[in-house]
Fold these 4 entries.
Entry 1:
Amino acid sequence: MPKVHLVDYVAGNIRSLVNAIEKCGYEVEWIRSPEDVKNADKIILPGVGHFGHCLSSLSSAGYLPAIHEHIASGKPFFGICVGLQALFTGSEEAPSVPGLGLIPTSLRRFSPKNNDGSRKSVPCIGWNDASTLHQQSPSTSSRDLSATGKSFYGLNPTSKYYYVHSYFVPYTPGELEKQGWTVATATYGDQTYVGAVGRGNVLGTQFHPEKSGAAGLRVIKAFLEGRVWSESTATGSSPVVSVSEVNDALPTLDNGANGLTRRIIACLDVRANDSGDLVVTKGDQYDVREKAAGSQVRNLGKPVEMAKRYYTQGADEVTFLNITSFRDCPVADLPMLEILRRTSETVFVPLTIGGGIRDMVDPATNKAISALDVAKLYFASGADKVSIGSDAVLAAEEYYASGKRLSGKTGIETISAAYGGQAVVVSVDPKRVYVSSPSETAHHTVRTAVPDAQGREFVWFACTIKGGRETRDLDVVQLVTAVEAMGAGEILLNAIDRDGQNNGYDLELIGLVKSAVSVPVIASSGAGNPSHFEEVFRKTDVDAALGAGMFHRGEYTVAQVKEHLARAGLLVRPFEE
Ligand code: 1PR
């Protein structure tokens, strides 16, 4: 097998990249010292997390001169995400830390406010273009290559790519092109930025090709095979979900979520059944046992197979929630890690894993294990993000008890410091609490369109822990604002009252949470048919929508949801094979 060298310098989900490279027919060899760089032909510099952390680690380990030499010698180099950012002079994220300086531009942070006053979520998480190609031409400073039928490293104008970042390289027409770079751009809200950039032997992508399905694998393959330019695959690819045609046929009614496609997530609640096998289950208001005699745990299928099925149906992300791991120690939960490993071999979209991420003591060894250690295990097994439930509520309570002081020690803070906030999702399990008037409670209330049996018209949303078994005196607004301050990058917003009810999302809850934070929010609980997805995207500015039961029971496929959205004029990612 031909080889490619990967720089091993920081934590992160490198497994997915290795899987993607192997899928392209290449073998990975690790670079573990600057000496190894000299012996390498093709190098990939993956990057997740913090620009300063990445560049300082590279610098203190002595890699920077070796990488400079490698690039100057004309050997192929590919930087992914922070690996692309490393090519530039610096970043607002760490002003005192210099980059490689190959391109004299600095990265800026996305503002949560667009110029027209509308809002966008930060970090930017989702699927966007890398298609409008610009290259220097003899007569003008920049030439749009989109219509020429030429593809740069396999990039396709109708494909979408997975981005997750808070910092970006602003695109100024002609600037990079004058220096000989070819640039592919994406637009998020009011900001057009560099999605991919290449010159000679160097390629960088802000998006994650290893998480961008077949479209991303094409880019990796083109780099590995040294195919800089080729005929565009725009007509050659065969979307299984022909939503791109539906999108094309419709007038553009929708710019997506600030340019991102409407993100659809399939969620698999996993737990051991009564025979001890890990199965996908699904509750009604979190009760996962059958109502009939015997009350077995509902068994809806095998996790790895179901994840793959949803990937081939076009799911933009897959989430696993290990729903009983608040009881058990996930370090002992090797089958769950194995599920992640096997899933990441065939599912090339982001994978999130939740359940049991907290400081604990391993019952087998009596040794203390931190939330960060647990997260590390999950990342090393193929997770891109970890989701924290119960521990986030307890951390938020401590945050308020200490007068909003950040301890730096919570799982959210330690994991986001090491892996970046974009890798930390907080899963919220709220329950409605009805009151007659806001003055009855100190919590954040909303007037509800569905009063309770006693006619009470106001609700607050109480946070719960341990899978809804324990309700706390903390409301969702308090929770999400606290975890945002701690560095969480995304909110997975369940609703216990709606879970498994198939009557649509809790729009009041979603509106309340969206107005409280800038990080992306995923709507969860209640989806029973494709029009519920349309409703949540039209009536709220939620960033993604998650479904579980309706997919597991085979009532609808992810593809049907996307087709429905596309027909309704909402922007979705076409699935490509
Ligand atoms: O507290 O950090 O150990 O994490 C435990 C995780 O497990 C939390 O994210 C919590 O939401 C989840 N969880 C715990 N118990 C249950 C249960 O169902 N008994 N599941 C549970 C949460 C909610 C969603 C579900 C949506 C959509 N499940 O995952 O998929 O409600 O369902 P629908 O579309 O069928 O309505 P920790």
Entry 2:
Amino acid sequence: MSGAEPQHIPSELTAVFRDAFGREPSGVWSAPGRVNLIGEHTDYNRGLCLPMAIPRRTWVAVAPRRDRRMRILSRQVPGERTIELDGLLEGNRGGWAAYAVGVLWALEQAGREVRGLDVVVDGRVPLGSGLSSSAALECAVAVAAVDVLGLPGYEGDEGRRDLAAVCVRAENEVAGAPTGGMDQSASLLARADEALLLDFDGDHPPVHVPFDLASHGLALLVMNTRAEHSLDDGQYGNRREECVAAVAELGVGSLRDLRPRDLDEVVPRLSSDVLRRRVRHVVTETERVTQAVAALEADDFDALTALFDASHASMRDDFEISCVELDTAVETARAAGALAARMTGGGFGGSAIAIVRDELVGEVSRAVTAAFSRQGFRSPELFPVTADGPARRELQAP
Ligand code: GAF
């Protein structure tokens, strides 16, 4: 299955909007999901990560309202939701729609004058797949809201960084998922054929790193295990709390203050083996991001292999966020000839990625599917991706 988006989504979405709301939308916008090449659970530890946008996008048709209400429906979920912006934190946040209405709330908290919106969503980022369907929804609504409400200050890369912060606030405070900022930054700032080097230690602009595997006869294969993952079920938040506890015990500003060479001296000071392993993952993972960027710049795929292997092992053994489905996907892909493979995203289910020679994509995919079937897992969804562009307007009002 290809990651390409059908061209007919904007006109279909416009027709659904017209049926639902009896008027034309102001336009159609879309925002991409992402994979992270390397650097997991580093963003909220002021570390580095290297995501890229994928050509699986969430699309929204939107028109402004005169009141302070969001009416929203999705082509993937039955039923329309109506959510009032006033008293949002005390009242009905709309379930999945909290990711959308939360953006309006966070824009208002950032000092912008907002009104309600009518919204129809077509989410083509697989839900619960660890490919950032939530951030794609937030970012699609955010760019649409900025356009239809005429909100100032969100132009250019700098404006988009501020908009990413708005979306993170929506996710943390309205949807209740304690995530870092990687996914929203990827969705709003990514560029086609490039990965995005993000540094969360202070206010650094992103660095765009050329990422064109095709010119090397290679493909990036996404392996969605369909083992469902959720960022608001407590496990992700638990890892974040453990990192906060480790920072407090060590008396450092953040785990970014530590380098791998410090670990032998610092790690024994921690009160538990669990915290020692969490710290070792975060500190070595940020170092691997720097090394992966150097490897990509030098077209050194052997180095990338070693870094992906080490990253996956660190997430499996030290940070303990992998699962049997992710391990099976990674190990089977590697055994079937993938140059490199690792789980991607928050973990506890979701997706893994593999760098595979073009001629082996079919073989690796078949091997992973067969391994899942042998083990009685749900059938995985496998598709190659290229680095896609950021959230954007797709269709002007007719
Ligand atoms: C999820 C979160 F949303 C990100 O902020 C990041 O922490 C990631 O998990 C792990 O790297 O996608």
Entry 3:
Amino acid sequence: GNDSTAGLVDPLTPVPPKPLIKSKSQISQELQTVRKSLPIWSFQSEIRTTIRDSDTMVLVGETGSGKSTQIGQFLLNQPYMSKMISASGKKYGGCIAITQPRRVAAISLAQRVSSEMGTTLGKEVGYCVRFDNVSDASTKIRYLTDGMLLNEILHDPELSRYSVVVVDEAHERSVSTDLGMGLLKGIVESRRKEKVPLKLIVMSATLDVEKMANYVGGTPKPGETSEEVIPAPICRIPGKIFPVEVFYTPVSIDNFQTAAAKTIFQVHYQYPCPGDILVFSTGSEEIEELASMVEELALQMEPDKPKLNVMRLYASLDPVEQQKVFVKGSPKERKVIISTNIAETSVTVPGVRHVIDCGKVKMKRFRHQLGIESLLVTDISQASAQQRKGRAGREAAGTCYRLYTEGHFKRLQKDTEPDILHCDLAGAMLTLLAMKSEHSMTTVNNFPFLDGPNHQSRVKALTTLLELGALDNKGNITKVGTKMSKFPLPPAQSRVIVAAGEEEEQNKKSEENVLVDVIDVLSCLSVDGNIILQPTRWRKTLAEPKKEVDPLLPQKKKKKRKHADDEDSDEDLTLEERVHSKRMDIVHPSGDHITYLNILRRYLSKRANEQKKFCQEYQISYPLMRKVENIRKQLRGYCRLDKVGDLPRDSEMKYESDTMVARYPRVSQEQTEKILKCFMAGLGVENIAKRAKGGKYRTLTSSGNTSSGVDVSVHPSSCLMWERSEHEAKRTKKDEGRSSWQRLPEGFGEAVMYQDVVWTSKAFMKCVSKIRLEWTTEVFEDLTIYGT
Ligand code: ADP
């Protein structure tokens, strides 16, 4: 060799530029340094020995201390992780499950841990969430939603592939977490008896630790059969928290959006960078609105001010978008992260020094008055407020602005109540009942809940299942119920599929397959978020050519517009007009359900490279449509597996939608009726509202009565609220038949059915379709409609 000249640079060879992209080993080294700085790092051996000596343990530590990312890696090569064989010769173990209440968290944690370990996502480290499984037989650390864990227990009651199950975010007390813990207690016990132990670790940020330790229960010593409860061992990771100064508003405020925006700029002008701002808002729509507002106001800042980099964070956001919040910003700009309560304990955003807290949270709540579950904006608890405040003191001293008065804070409930006390339990009950045959302990009435749901919710859940035909009069699960339990959908929606399957079986070989169409609509409903983008989100996705601002523009435009009307050209329409006019091709006059079907049929009939363009033109979310396609495929798979209906093969799917669009540019009247009736069967009388005077609607109660019903309005996002633009009106006069605003037959709109209710200023129905009142007595036999 040439070793002696290795250090010399040949003057004729250009020096290669420094690589801008960090090498793999550089990244992994940096990640290792970060790992070692996490508070949990020094507790590694304590955690390992505790769970070696006991089958259960409770692990408590502040958000961001490293629990979710490190626990799996700590346990990976421990002796209790190896595969075991029971006396009967069955194989057990080898994998760690880590459950999350939110799918986003499961995905982003798996991504993070797999890059920390330098592996390919889906191999050693993977995830499994509803409709998306990125893991295989070699997976050792598997992040999954708590709902998916329940689904796995349905299929494998002993969870035989796992050596360890970690229940993360237990403090959130989601219904599935609570249910999962109850079931896991039983599984730990039965696997201990078979000498193929399953380890259970319950983790949380804030928790009534002793209560949880008693509930989970410790491991009795061999031969010990004490009647007393042995608590599970507890491991605490002390958190480092810097002081956070709290400010309240002097008077209570109504408009959180403007108050939040004002506070953001106040903080920005008052405190030098670095120090990012985290804003707690309620939901995706509020977040988008506030974010746009801040972005617009930021344009008016003096040029010497550091830039504001506005980021959104909510569960239905694209994971790629979400990942952006983890990136450390440059010192010359300030991140403003506007988030739901997902940033409260679930996601740790680095760099935050200022928190703005609106004091509200959007939660699923059971509305006894309406008889249905809906998303409701409610006050947070004091515990929640403290947790939010703490987000500002992770890295240095910080500030927290509460957009409410100190008096209001003092009146807040001390702790957040578990969901199980508020939510619709029908789905959970159905899962339990479907398991009953396999799990002797899981009868609904003696299930070991940490906090038992009250009598009223239990009765309500059982009544719902009875009404759906999932239970018989004796309370036993029916064939329909068993079929329903196999779908990863809420009972109302799985009932729709089963109803469509029945309809399809009766009407075999009819060209328009109801089951196919119902699955299509349900797929559109099953994505997080509306596939039809709302006007506030249009600008971002539509690449409009930027024009120079011309002071003469208003006049010019007017002149041109007049011209355009004559020529009937699309060119000079505003974005709104253009999209609206386009959308008139796909809207169905009955409402949202069939409009979704129209959209999906059109989308599927396009070639792959044209689908994106289609979405742009109609302002439909392309990423969501990709997900819809995937969900559709999986729901069809479940139908085949459980022998619901008779579906065409996957290879025919594309062809099928092509021909559908060619033959039926519009969904036929008859088919519309069949589809909507299937949905009614699942949604029940409670999701039907009858038209009252003045274009309003009033809900029916289960007896068919409207006099005790509630006034509800159609949500602005429904296509029933799309108005025909002036332009479109003119055009259709010329070109009758192009628009699908065909007339509906007599009686449509006497009543509506809806998927969801949201409460803002009043009760709004989301995803609404017009129906005929007489269908209600047809679908719900024995129902008489009273009142007006
Ligand atoms: P805990 O479970 O105790 O709340 P985590 O293990 O979730 O803590 O987080 C530990 C650290 O890893 C945090 O500082 C967090 O910012 C970082 N982290 C977590 N997930 C990601 C991710 N997907 N990308 C980048 N950093 C992440």
Entry 4:
Amino acid sequence: DPYADDPVRHPALKVNSQRPFNAEPPPELLTENYITPNPIFFTRNHLPVPNLDPDTYRLHVVGAPGGQSLSLSLNDLYKFPKHEITVTLQCAGNRRSEMSRVKEVKGLEWRTGAISTARWAGARLCDVLAQAGHQLCETESHVCFEGLDSDPTGTAYGASIPLARALDPEAEVLLAYEMNGQPLPRDHGFPVRVVVPGVVGARHVKWLGRVSVEPEESHSHWQRRDYKGFSPSVDWDTVDFDSAPSIQELPVQSAITEPQDGETVESGEVTVKGYAWSGGGRAVIRVDVSLDGGLTWQAAELYGEVQRPRKAWAWCLWKLQAPVPAGQKKLNIVCKAVDDSYNVQPDTVAPIWNLRGVLSNSWHRVHVHVTP
Ligand code: MTE
Ligand code: MO
């Protein structure tokens, strides 16, 4: 059993798949803290978790022509300036279960919890690439990452990002060795993972073994044959994966974490809580909440760490306390966020349905009963 050596997990996690391990925190725990505690941070593994020895670990960085290839130990990585940032990581499949209610999709049934936030610390990728002689000349190039997890044929997890993002110090791409002040937990990439702020989770390669600059995107299945969006009319017989770009920056997203669907709330006043985030460093500027299915709206109170302009890598949490209209037996609660480019979420899921069930970001809706 290649999974026999997987780590022990927190019992509060809602497990979507045991082997490989995929799990999300329950909604009420997800927004209990701004920073997600490591043991309940959502986990998305495609393969068994490798058990790597920090003393013999080496990161191979392929040098530029005329530059120098590097074989970096953990101690070598610690010598680069340490950079620490708060970044929200979201899987492209977050909220897929709502999409599969419209029509079947291929993928894990994530609810609203395939998203979490941590303080990540490590070396900036641009500093490491500079040491290997890479400069921004070939802007069409890509930085390819390979994990040290592999399937029975020996194929490793891999992904890539454009070189321009990797070399941009303002993009703050990290080779992270710390998560919330601790060494990375095994499930989250011990000893080193990539953190690409504002970009889909699939590019944050864990158990990082190799970094190379290539003229093309990574040839990995997960870069080329997965994690792409398509029209609702494309099915598995007609899909042409080469026709769509790989997902990088994610669209604006929000969800309600309290109350939960089917719950009963007290009459008088209701408290609605949730999270909101957008990709590419775009800040969430407003979250609108409706108690009547979208007829009328109130702005929620946003809270959390203050984000820098164009570098809003982390989510905001939000809350609305509102009177329950007298005589109301049910509430149809809806939320939608707006980012600083005034991007909004689509109102329904059917028009954005896609066969892989990614990019599910329509208005989030929960139905609750009110005690008489
Ligand atoms: N890196 C490796 N090596 N193997 C993986 O299976 N999964 C990716 C990414 N990096 C993966 C990986 C996907 S799809 C996501 S969403 C994130 O890791 C999840 O990171 P987390 O498990 O720390 O939440
Ligand atoms: Mo993912």
